[in-house]
Each structure stands twice: as structure tokens, then as C-alpha cells.
């Protein structure tokens, strides 16, 4: 990561001020955070640890938690985040950081619990945060895919139906061999994506999986016709090539049948 | 997150300075407090072909509306959210004037008017979607230590636009107002939005919907920062003055919004409290699931607002925003596609360099290929307080020294990068889609040439200031003109008819200093 253009100057100035006031915890935290952000771990740790001795442990804990998370020391990150959460139990970003650190540390129950708390505390969680949580669920718990789908449906009910969440749900349905469930979820996006070549291409693929080859062929024909009428873009040109491949695949499937 | 009493310790060293800022903030909130009896902060959101949203504060709970100013026969009672009253007017006719007021029989001067959008895909009755774009306009409230350095400048830019509109555009009414971020300095507090936006554009935003994007100054304060390069106060004589100033937050989470350096504000992120944005596809476009980035259709244009300030800073969230953008643009069939976000992919501004700042680099590397492959026509950003406008670009995702006009710009018959002007407009799209990127963060102030002393990189102009090679060149020698940009105040006027899109940079005097046209095939 490249440092902010201003970081260099701020660091130089912080150096000068800290030289004059070496026991000012706030300045040490400010400099430690800048070091942490720019990957200078040792310098960051030195400043933040010193600030910790000059102030309360809780107030430096979030920055230290972030530092250790960025550095890949997830266990240590968790210790500091827990300290911070103990002092500030209603701050959503702390639970998000704990969820991510716990996931990396393979403490999956804690990760899931932290995501749940984050989603209950944050007024505006994003689809991307739900996706991170369900990806972890789907990859870790024995019944993870089912739990992930439950969480996805909760997210959809809170944020509204959107392709990012429902597409992943469709993929999870396929992973649990529920082709009909996958088709139902994909059909639910028809109002939003039905005009896109990608929606038709995916639908055709799902129909092939469901042994509805003739229906898949009709979908491909429809997408082809639609593509001709749309303004040409590089992406739509690529979609045309994908459709040509799909047609060949359909021919092969028909022949093998 | 460094919070509360530690910041207090830092402030002890700066007590006189800090108190002068606090006193100013208190004064401002007192002056701007509204009477409970009168509606204030009246503005439009989400005006579609069959509905519109009116938001306001204080005063009556009911709004009256109709197709004639003297016959406001319909009414809606508002709901309340985040200290705003919200009335959704439904069942409206497309491309039609509507009048509204807070009394059924309101005096003429109290009646406001807006026009609904045409049916999706159709052009407005006047043949043109007329759009005003404002970048970094929020300087009316910009102050350090109670010193206001840009008072009246945003108003000058607005007056320049109004003069242009009256003389050149036959006073064509606006269809959309797009904000490019940093529209309420320095921290984007609710009070600053009032002073820098609602108190200035009052009449305009009662008649046209506002569509914003998140800038760095919307996101509160960051870590302590030396303000001396930006403002000369006596305290600076003794050395750097570190303050929690607005505009340098590195957070990706709106929950961390902090207006003053003493920890996250309990009232939340003002931007999201103020605006009601279509996260569920309410206005056309694919639902994003978040108000931080969204899209909508209006007449023959599709507009996308991306979040380069928060979502962009987190790799996973940025990837989700990118995936959404791909879906949204794939589903888009409008004549023209406009994208707005704050951090410019290509800029050599005074304090902002797209070769150095991560937000700009990430926007360029992640999103520029999507814009080109999925048919975006024009991209507008702010952040740098000057005007820069690119050639008709394709395939330039690296640093500025990797720009190669022969590969990345559309060339004219003489082999020079084409300007898209006069009888040689750019041609839209095709299998090699190109786009024009404009930086216009100068609707509230413009940077001035002040060469950097040795070793200084902020608060001054470096030798390569306004010399990004992806931007068009200027040969003028008038004040403010540099080789690849113009350091003057102004705003963008964008007109989209069925067959052409024209983007103009209009200065504070109402003069058009640059333009380009794209023609549809």
C-alpha cells in the first residue's frame, strides 16, 4: 500500500513535536497509526506501546489491534480488540475488526459471533460485509452452507434484494446440490438483471445443469437477439463470444443425449 | 481508534486555538437554528417520472401539491427520520410541472415548483437533460481558527452558472444537480451542510433533486495534522500546530464518523442522515444494497455515484462495489452513462496527485477498466481544486509517466490527441469504448500557483502541478491556465440530448473555458 501523500510530511512534523514533548500519548498514537498504515510495523509498535504506558490501555487498544491484524499476528490482535471492546462495547468497527481477526485466527465461533454483533450494532452494514461473513460461514461450519444461506436471506430482507447477495446464495445452492433452489434464486433477479447477457448466460448454464436443455437453448436464442439490439461495448462483445461457446456446448449436450 | 481523553491531552497544548474553533462552531449553530414554526432546509430527492420526495425540517408535517400553483389539492403527511421530515409524492405524471407548499392556500411566493422526469429512456420535453455538477463547493463554512478564507466564492460560482444559464442556455431549467463531494467543509457536520449547501443553493434544490457522492471532507476528522501549510496563524511561528482537522480520515466505516476528534459521533454520519438515496433500485438501476453507492435513471441518462472515500478503502468492500458496478452497467440501456465519485483517477492537483494517493490509484486500477468495458461515457470527480479534463481515454491504468497518447488517447487525423470540439466531436462507444474523465473540485475555491519550497509537498504547487498527460493541453497564457488544466473557480454544465452529450466548464463569470462533445452513433 502506498502511503497517503501527506503522510511523509506529517511524520516529519510529528517527529519534531514528539522530540519536544516525548511523553504526549496522543502524538505517539498519531505517529504509531501512520506507521501502522504504511507498514512500518516495528516503529508503529514502539510508539503505540509507549503511548500505552503513558495513558490508559483501552484507549490505545484499537490501534494496537489494527496493527497486529495488519501484521498477521491475529491472536495478539484479538487480545487488544477484546480490551477495547471491554471499554467501548457499542462501537461497530471494533466488532468488524474482531470478526476478521478471529476468522484469520481460525476462531470461527468468535468470528461469527462478532459479525452478528456488528450487524446488530451497525445502522448501515454493506452487502460486502455480509458477503465476508457468509463466505466464512460457508467455508467453516459443518452446516455452514445452510447457516450462510440463512444469513444471506436475513441480509436480503434488511438491505433489499440485490445481485451481490443473491448471486452468492445461488452459488451456495449449487454447492448443496439444490439446482432448483439455485434456479429460483437466479429467477428472482430477473427484474434487475434480466436484460443483461450475463443473466441469460448464467440461466442457460443452470438450465443445462437441471437437464432442461431445450429451455436453455431458447434462453440462448433470446440473449443473442437481445445482444444485437444493445449498444456495443467491449463487455457485450465478450458476452457474444461466450454465447457462441455456450451454443457449441448445447450442441454437444444434445448430441450426447 | 484513539479516543476521548487522550485527544483531550493533546488539546491542552492548543487550548486557545481549539477554543476559538469551538466558539465559532457554537455561534454558527445558534445563528442557523430554525424557528419551530417555519419549514427550513427544504430540498428534493429521488424525483422520478411518477414520484418525488420532499425533505425538510421544522414547521408543518403536511405538504400540499398540485399541477397548478393556485390549486394545491393533494397532500401528504411526512414521516420523520434523522431529524428530517420526508414526504413521498406518488402517482405523478411524467415530464410535468408540480407545485408544492406547506399550506393548502399558500401565498404565491411560498409555492415551490419542480418538474418530474420524463418516462425512462425519453428525453425531456425541451429535448435535453440539463445537469449541473458541483465539486468541492462546500467552502462557505471552511475555517481554521475561526478564519474564513473562501467566503462568498461558492456563491460566485453559482452566480456564474446562473449567468451562463440565462444567456447561453435560454434559462433552461435544471434536471439534475450532481455533487462531486466535499460539499460541506471542513468536517461535513450537519451545521456545515446547512451553511455550505442548504443556505446557498436554497432555491435551486427546492426545484431539482440533489444527487451526492462522499468526499473526504464529508467524513469528519482524521489523526492530528499540522495545519500551518494551509493557514498562517500566529501560533505557527512557534512550529507545527497539530489539529484533528477534517478531510483526512482514513476510515472505511461510516460508523466511525468523528466530527471533532473526541471519538465517533453518537448521531452518526451526517451525509447518510441528510440524503435519502436509492439503495434498492427505486429509481432504476441495479440495487446496491447501500446508500454509500447507488445508481439511477433519469430520462435518457444513467447516473452512477461510487464511494471513493469509504468503500474504496476496504479491499473486500471495494470488490463488492466493483461487482455491483459491473451488474449495474450491464443492465444499463440509457443513451448516456455518467459516473461521479470524489477521488480523481487522473490528477496533478495542488495537494492531490493520482500517482501518490492510494484512493485515486485504487479507483483508477479497479474501476477505469470497468468504465471502458461497460460503456461509461463520462466520469466526474472533485478533490483537486482546479479543472482538468482528459483526452478520450482507453487503457491507461498506470502512473502518469506510463501514459502514451498514441495508445491511450483517441487521435485526430493529424495524429494528435483529439479534443472532441467543433466539427470533430468524439464518437460514442463501440467495441473500443472510451471515456472522458473530468476533475472539477473548484466550485468553492481554486488553487493558485505557489511553488513549493525545497522539501515541501503539501500546501504549495509542485513543478508538475496541473501537468497530468492524460488531460488535454491548453496553450492559453491567461492567469490560471497551466499546461494540462485551469486553476480557476467554476462548475460543470452537462447537456445530454438524444444524439449528443456536451460537457462545459463554466467559470465564475459565466464564461465557458472548455467543452467537449460526444456524438451517439
What this model shows, in words?
- The complex is a heterodimer of chains A (257) and B (521).
- Chain A has 257 residues and is mainly alpha-helical.
- Helices cover 80% and strands 0% of the residues of chain A.
- Chain A contains 15 helices and no strands.
- A 7-stranded mixed β-sheet of chain B has the order 13-12-9-25-26-27-21. A 6-stranded mixed β-sheet of chain B has the order 16-17-18-19-22-20, with no helix packed on it. In chain B, strands 1-2-6-5 form a 4-stranded antiparallel β-sheet, with no helix packed on it.
- In chain B, β26 (500-507) and β27 form a beta hairpin.
- The radius of gyration of chain B is 22 Å and the shape is globular.
- The N and C termini of chain B lie far apart (53 Å).
- The model of chain B is unreliable at 1-35 (pLDDT under 50).
- The interface between A and B is large, with 71 and 74 residues.
Write the layout of secondary structure elements.
The complex is a heterodimer of chains A (257) and B (521).
Chain A: H1 7-20, H2 25-37, H3 41-54, H4 57-71, H5 74-87, H6 92-104, H7 108-121, H8 127-140, H9 144-159, H10 163-175, H11 179-187, H12 190-193, H13 197-209, H14 213-229, H15 234-256
Helix pairs in contact in A: 1-2, 2-3, 2-4, 3-4, 4-5, 4-6, 5-6, 6-7, 7-8, 8-9, 8-10, 9-10, 10-11, 11-13, 13-14, 13-15, 14-15
Chain B: H1 5-12, H2 15-32, E1 40-45, E2 51-57, E3 62-66, E4 74-77, E5 79-81, E6 84-90, E7 97-101, E8 112-115, E9 129-134, E10 143-144, E11 147-148, H3 153-167, E12 176-179, H4 190-198, H5 202-205, E13 210-211, E14 225-226, E15 242-243, H6 270-274, E16 294-298, E17 301-305, H7 315-330, E18 336-340, H8 358-373, E19 378-381, E20 387-389, H9 405-408, E21 426-427, E22 436-440, E23 481-482, E24 485-486, E25 490-496, E26 500-507, E27 512-519
Parallel strand pairs in B: 9-12, 12-13, 17-18, 18-19, 19-22, 21-27
Antiparallel strand pairs in B: 1-2, 2-6, 3-4, 3-7, 5-6, 7-8, 9-25, 10-11, 14-15, 16-17, 20-22, 23-24, 25-26, 26-27
Helix pairs in contact in B: 7-8
Amino acid at each position: 500500500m502506498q502511503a497517503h501523500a501527506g503522510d511523509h510530511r506529517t511524520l516529519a512534523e510529528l517527529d519534531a513535536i514528539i522530540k519536544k514533548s516525548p511523553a504526549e500519548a496522543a502524538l505517539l498514537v498519531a505517529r504509531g497509526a501512520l506507521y501502522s498504515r504504511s507498514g512500518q510495523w516495528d516503529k508503529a509498535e514502539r510508539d503505540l506501546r509507549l503511548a500505552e504506558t503513558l495513558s490508559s490501555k483501552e484507549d490505545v487498544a484499537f490501534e494496537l489491534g489494527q496493527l497486529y491484524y495488519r501484521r498477521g499476528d491475529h491472536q495478539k490482535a484479538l487480545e487488544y480488540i477484546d480490551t477495547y471492546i471491554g471499554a467501548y462495547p457499542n462501537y461497530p468497527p471494533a466488532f468488524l475488526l474482531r470478526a476478521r481477526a478471529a476468522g484469520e485466527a481460525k476462531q470461527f465461533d468468535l468470528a461469527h459471533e462478532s459479525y452478528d454483533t456488528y450487524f446488530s450494532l451497525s445502522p448501515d452494514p454493506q452487502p460486502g460485509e455480509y458477503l465476508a461473513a457468509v463466505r466464512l460461514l460457508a467455508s467453516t461450519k459443518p452446516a455452514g452452507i445452510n447457516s450462510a444461506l440463512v444469513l444471506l436471506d436475513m441480509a436480503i430482507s434488511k438491505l433489499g434484494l440485490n445481485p451481490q447477495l443473491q448471486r452468492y446464495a445461488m452459488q451456495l445452492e449449487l454447492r448443496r446440490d439444490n439446482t432448483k433452489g439455485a434456479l429460483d434464486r437466479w429467477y428472482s433477479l430477473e427484474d434487475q438483471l434480466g436484460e443483461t447477457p450475463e443473466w441469460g448466460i448464467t440461466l442457460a448454464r443452470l438450465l443445462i445443469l437441471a437437464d432442461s436443455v431445450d429451455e436453455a437453448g431458447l434462453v440462448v436464442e433470446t440473449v443473442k437477439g437481445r445482444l444485437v439490439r444493445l449498444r456495443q461495448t467491449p463487455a457485450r462483445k465478450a458476452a457474444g463470444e461466450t454465447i457462441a461457446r455456450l451454443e457449441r456446448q448445447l450442441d454437444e449436450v444434445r448430441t450426447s443425449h | 481508534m484513539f479516543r476521548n481523553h487522550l485527544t483531550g491531552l493533546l488539546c491542552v497544548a492548543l487550548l486557545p486555538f481549539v477554543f476559538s474553533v469551538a466558539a465559532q462552531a457554537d455561534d454558527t449553530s445558534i445563528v442557523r437554528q430554525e424557528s419551530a414554526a417555519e419549514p427550513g432546509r427544504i430540498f428534493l430527492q429521488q424525483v422520478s417520472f411518477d414520484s418525488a420526495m420532499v425533505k425538510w425540517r421544522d414547521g408543518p408535517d403536511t405538504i400540499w401539491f398540485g399541477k397548478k400553483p393556485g390549486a394545491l389539492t393533494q397532500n401528504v403527511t411526512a414521516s420523520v427520520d434523522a431529524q428530517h421530515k420526508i414526504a413521498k409524492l406518488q402517482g405523478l405524471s411524467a415530464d410535468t410541472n408540480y407545485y408544492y407548499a406547506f399550506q393548502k392556500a399558500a401565498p404565491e411566493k411560498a409555492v415551490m415548483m419542480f418538474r418530474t422526469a420524463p418516462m425512462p429512456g425519453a428525453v425531456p420535453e425541451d429535448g435535453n437533460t440539463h445537469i449541473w455538477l458541483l465539486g468541492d463547493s462546500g467552502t462557505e463554512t471552511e475555517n481554521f481558527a475561526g478564519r474564513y478564507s473562501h467566503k462568498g466564492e461558492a456563491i460566485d460560482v453559482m452566480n456564474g452558472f446562473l449567468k451562463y444559464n440565462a444567456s447561453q442556455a435560454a434559462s433552461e431549467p435544471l434536471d439534475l444537480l450532481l455533487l462531486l463531494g466535499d460539499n460541506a467543509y471542513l468536517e461535513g457536520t450537519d451545521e456545515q451542510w446547512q451553511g455550505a449547501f442548504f443556505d446557498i443553493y436554497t432555491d435551486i434544490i427546492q426545484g431539482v433533486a440533489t444527487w451526492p457522492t462522499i468526499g473526504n471532507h464529508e467524513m469528519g476528522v482524521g489523526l492530528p495534522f499540522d495545519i500551518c501549510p494551509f493557514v498562517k496563524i500566529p501560533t505557527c511561528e512557534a512550529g507545527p500546530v497539530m489539529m484533528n482537522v477534517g478531510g483526512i480520515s482514513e476510515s472505511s466505516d461510516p460508523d466511525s464518523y468523528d466530527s471533532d476528534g473526541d471519538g465517533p459521533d453518537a448521531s452518526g454520519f451526517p451525509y447518510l442522515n441528510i440524503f435519502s438515496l436509492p439503495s434498492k433500485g427505486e429509481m432504476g438501476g441495479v440495487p446496491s444494497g447501500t446508500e454509500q453507492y447507488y445508481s439511477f435513471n433519469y430520462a435518457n441518462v444513467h447516473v452512477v455515484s461510487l464511494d471513493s472515500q469509504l468503500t474504496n478503502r476496504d479491499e473486500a468492500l471495494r470488490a463488492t462495489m466493483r461487482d455491483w458496478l459491473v451488474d449495474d452497467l450491464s443492465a444499463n440501456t440509457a443513451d448516456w452513462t455518467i459516473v461521479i465519485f470524489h477521488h480523481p483517477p487522473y490528477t496533478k492537483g495542488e495537494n492531490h496527485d493520482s500517482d501518490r494517493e492510494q484512493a485515486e490509484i485504487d479507483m483508477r486500477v479497479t474501476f477505469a477498466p470497468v468504465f471502458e468495458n461497460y460503456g461509461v461515457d463520462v466520469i466526474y470527480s472533485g478533490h483537486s481544486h482546479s479543472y482538468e479534463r482528459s483526452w478520450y481515454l482507453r487503457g491507461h491504468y498506470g502512473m502518469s509517466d506510463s501514459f502514451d497518447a498514441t495508445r491511450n488517447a483517441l487521435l485526430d487525423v493529424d495524429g494528435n490527441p483529439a479534443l472532441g470540439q467543433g466539427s470533430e466531436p468524439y464518437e460514442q462507444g463501440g467495441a473500443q469504448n472510451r471515456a472522458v474523465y473530468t476533475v472539477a473540485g473548484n466550485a468553492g475555491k481554486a488553487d493558485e500557483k505557489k511553488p513549493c519550497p525545497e522539501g515541501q509537498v503539501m500546501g504549495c504547487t509542485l513543478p508538475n502541478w496541473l501537468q497530468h498527460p492524460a488531460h488535454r493541453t491548453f496553450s492559453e497564457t491567461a492567469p490560471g491556465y497551466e499546461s494540462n488544466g485551469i486553476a480557476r473557480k467554476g462548475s460543470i454544465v452537462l447537456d445530454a440530448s438524444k444524439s449528443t452529450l456536451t460537457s462545459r466548464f463554466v467559470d465564475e463569470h459565466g464564461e465557458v473555458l472548455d467543452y467537449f462533445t460526444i456524438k451517439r452513433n
